[in-house]
Design goal:
mainly beta; 1 helix; three-stranded antiparallel sheet; binds FE2/S2 (inorganic) cluster
C-alpha cells in the first residue's frame, strides 16, 4: 500500500508559486486567487530577497496594481496602490504615504528552495 500522507502534507503547506527566475531583481509579479479570501498575491525581489504580500490594499481592500505585474512606483523603491496612491515599503509592506499611513500589507509566508518559490 502506498503511503502518500507526507505528499498530502507537503501540498497543503507548500503551494508551488513559480520558478525563482520568474521574479528578477527589482521586478514585481502578481497572481490571482492564491489566498483563502480569494485575493491575489504579488511578489517583489529587492537586493536578492523575495517579498510576498496579499494583493489587497489596507485602505479599501482593493488590488494594488494599475497594470498587470506593476506594483512599484516610478522609482522602483516603493509599492504603490493604483486606486488612491498609497505608498508602502517593500521590506515591511508598511504604508508611509497616502490614506492608510501606518497600516501594512499582509505578508505571505513563502520559501525559495532549489530554484522554486512556494507559498504556505
Ligand atoms: S485602495 Fe489603496 S490607497 Fe485606497
Amino acid at each position: 500500500m502506498k503511503d502518500n500522507t507526507n505528499q498530502q502534507y507537503e501540498k497543503t503547506v507548500n503551494q508551488f508559486l513559480t520558478k525563482s527566475t520568474e521574479i528578477k531583481e527589482g521586478e514585481s509579479k502578481g497572481w490571482a486567487d492564491k489566498t483563502d479570501c480569494g485575493a491575489g498575491i504579488f511578489a517583489i525581489r529587492k537586493q536578492g530577497k523575495l517579498f510576498v504580500y496579499r494583493n489587497q490594499c489596507p485602505h479599501r481592500g482593493l488590488p494594488l496594481e494599475w497594470i498587470e505585474n506593476q506594483f512599484l512606483d516610478s522609482s522602483g523603491e516603493l509599492i504603490q496602490c493604483s486606486s488612491h496612491g498609497a505608498l508602502f515599503t517593500i521590506e515591511q509592506g508598511r504604508c508611509i504615504a497616502g490614506p492608510c499611513v501606518g497600516q501594512t500589507l499582509t505578508p505571505i509566508e513563502h520559501e525559495e528552495r532549489d530554484g522554486f518559490i512556494f507559498i504556505k
